[in-house]
Structures are given as structure tokens and as C-alpha cells.
Amino acid sequence: MPKVYLRTFGCQMNERDSEQVAQMFIERGFTLTSRPDDADVLLMNTCSVRDQAEQKALGNMRELGRHRKSNPQRVFGMIGCMAQSRGSQLLEEIPFLDLVAGTQKYHKVVDHCVDLMRAKEEADMDDLRRPIVDVDDEKGSQNTIRDHVHKDRGVSEFVSIMQGCNMKCTFCIVPYTRGPERARPIAEIVEECRILVDQGVREVTLLGQIVNLYGRHEFPAVDDKSPFVQLLEAVHEVDGIKRIRFTSPHPIGYKSDLIEAFTYLPKLVDHVHFPMQSGSNRVLRLMHRPYKVEKFLEICARMKEARPGIAISTDIIVGFPGETDEDYLETKKAVETVQFDQAFVFRYSPRRGTPAADMEDQIPERIKEARNQDLLALVDSIVERKNNEHVGRTVEVLCEGPSRYNKERLTGRTGTNRIAIFDGDADELAGELLDIHISESSGYTLYGEIVSAASRTSNRVAASTLQTKNLARL
């Protein structure tokens, strides 16, 4: 039985795409292996968001190349965003590559690999390599990401609802690697969620490059509700789904209907990841982010009113071309205003082919690093304070199974996306909503003891009903 080694770099979207590819290999009779020296096919799903991610992928593939000596008929491939952006150039950088497949070709990866394996078996030793480069656009490719690798105690899963992005932020390569927005039909997404429930999944995270713009070109609004809110309502009706998350939304698509959804859809968790990118209106304009920081802050305030206690996390770029000290201080001010529950802070990284890479006033690395460390210190202080406030409280946690770092203990996440560690039986509790009394906070992790294993969804419904009276103020 042939074996495939698949390593993934980058975002949750890449993780989900890799899962689709892995499942297709399994259906064709392959087995997955974590050992590259044991594999017949060695694949790397790549990321292009930052140069560091590309260089890491290239370095890792070159390292994998040493396994050619033991079996020259092995197939080596790079798929995903870097494959899409660089195409046949990768064959020059990695001469032994057999396959380069782009972001709209995941469903063809297995066929390509099987064809390459057969060709190598039939070829003379001097003519083993006939590489395949497949990076063309393909209509309907968004509908091919629908299958999941079945995992024991797989409690939480990603569900891809769309592909692509139309925004063209000046720092971002995603529109060039993922293509334009394309949405999957609501019925197909709901059916995927039902299948996941049958496999033991209790929480789904809806994925899209700009998730709240889902279906805006394909599907009409109904009763003043956007296609995305219609999708949330449909997934909410799936029996067995206990929690719904989504990532990542954009301020221009964050309308009143989505804010209101948090007042009547209790399965929506008490957490939103909401990228701000900068707290300076001048920098936002340079980024081609079509909103002002005041609008971003208004949406955050309305979300907190619609769902009291909601946690808001964000993405922030420091050192964008032309960012002054005053611009950076505006970002710090916005962070202090919102009091983010988590923030992922990135130093600006030029990406080939993006407008920002050619802008004047590129910021020196030492200034980027100084701002990065300064902002991280502020974020860490806010997160530590907020986590410490949980000590002595009882919070609802979805048990995911054994802890990654200590298999003798269990782990799960609160509705506000905080990690909690506690004791219990994974076979009995995985997938259950538990009341956990928090006794300790350490950095970004909470520790506690189980109070009860009763699902509190009915209580949340009653609570959300009371919240609807806030609508008049939204």
C-alpha cells in the first residue's frame, strides 16, 4: 500500500485544504505517514503570506530531497499558495520537484501523483522526471473542498465556505494566489456539517478569506439578511452542532444583520477574530483597507453590546511602508481602547508583486522589531490581566480531548477562545460542554476543575432572548 507524507505551512485555510488532499489519497488506497523516509509521495502545502514562510518551505523541501537516493521513484510536490504564485519557477529552485499544483487544483493532486508514479515505474532510469505544473484557474474549485479525514475524538473542524478574495489590500498576495471570491452553496455546507456531526464533531469553524462577504455575488439577501447570516442560521439548525465560529471577517462586511445574529444565535461563540491591521487612518488608506479606525472601533463596541462578555482578537501589522511614530502610537491607542483578548502582531514583510513592496519609505527592520516587541508587550499585559480575571469563575468549555503537552490531562476552549486544562476521562468527556471552575491562570492558559458536564445551550437560548431587547440600541 503506497504512503504519502504531507506537511502544511500557513493558515487555517491551508490546513483545511491539506485535509481534503489527505482524504482523497486515503480514498485512492494510500496511507498517511509522518515519516518522509517511509513515503512514496512527499508533498508540501505552502504559504506565501510572508517571505519567511516561503523560505522555510523551500528549505524543508530541499531537506526532503535527500530521500531520493534511497528511492529515485519517489514523487516530490509543492502545492498551495507558493506553488500558485511561483509556478514553474519552483522547478528552477528545486530541480527534483515532480509536481507544482496551485490553489484551485487540490482535487487533482492525487491524480497527478498517481500519474507520476506510473510514469516513473515505466520510464528508464535516465528519464524518470516528467514534472507537472498545474496552476491554471478552474471554475467551481471552491466546491471541491468538502471532505474530512476522520479523526478519533475530532471535536472541532474547519469548514471551507468560499475561496478567493477581491479586496486587493496593498500588502497581501492572497488575491493573486487564491483568485477572486467564489462561494459554495448553503445546502452543500450544511450537508457537510451534518456529516461531521455523525463523525462526532461538535464545533465548526467557517472559513473564508473574508468570511462575512460570503456569497455576495452569487446569492441574494433575504429579509435584509446577507448570505453569510443566512448561512449562520442554516448551520445553527444542524442538530448536534454545539458551537459555531468563523474567521476572518472584514469591517466593510460587518453590517447590522451580523451584529444582530449574536443576539439570537446562541451557538455562535462569544468570540470574534476581527483584523484591524492598523489603528492609523493614514496607514489604512495606504493599505487600501476601505474603512476608518473609528468605524472599526464602533463595530467592536456594538458587538460588545450585542453579546456582553464577547472576546475580540485581531491581526495587526507594524512597520508598514511610511508608518510614522505617530501612526504607530495611533495603533497602540486603538489596542488600549478595544482591550483585545488576543492580538497577532506581525512585522510588515514585502511580498513580490504587491503594491506595498514597491512603496517608498520602507521601514528599517530595527524599527519594525522595536514596534513589534513594544506592541506585543502591551497585548500580553492586557491578555494576562483578562485571563487572571477568570480565576475563581466557572466557565463553559468544549472538551477536545487529551492535552497536546500532557496526555494525562484534558484540554478544551472556552467560548471566548481561551485554552483550559483540567482532569477527566477523554473517552467520556470529549465533545461535551463542561462547566469548569478556574483555579489558576498561567500566561495564555487557564487551569481548573470540572463542576458539571451538562450542556447549557438551553440556558444560553434563554439568555440570548433577553439580549434581543438591546437591538433598539444597535
What does this 3D model show about the protein?
There is one protein chain. 35% of the residues lie in helices and 21% in strands. With 474 residues, it is of the alpha/beta class. It has three domains: 3-134, 3-Layer(aba) Sandwich (Rossmann fold); 141-386, pyruvate-formate lyase- activating enzyme (Alpha-Beta Horseshoe), CATH 3.80.30; 394-458, Nucleic acid-binding proteins (OB fold (Dihydrolipoamide Acetyltransferase, E2P), Beta Barrel). Helix 2 (51-64) links the parallel strand 3 (41-46) and strand 4 (75-80). The longest helix has 24 residues, at 365-388.
Short description:
The chain contains 15 helices and 19 strands. With 474 residues, it is of the alpha/beta class. α7 runs parallel beside α8 (227-236), α9 (256-264) runs parallel beside α11 (293-306) and α12 (325-338) runs parallel beside α13.
Query: What fraction of residues sit in β-strands?
Result: 15-25%
Rough outline: globular
Mean pLDDT over the residues: 92
| Structure classification | alpha/beta
What's the β-strand tally? Answer: 19
Largest sheet: 6 strands, parallel
CATH domain topology of the largest domain: pyruvate-formate lyase- activating enzyme
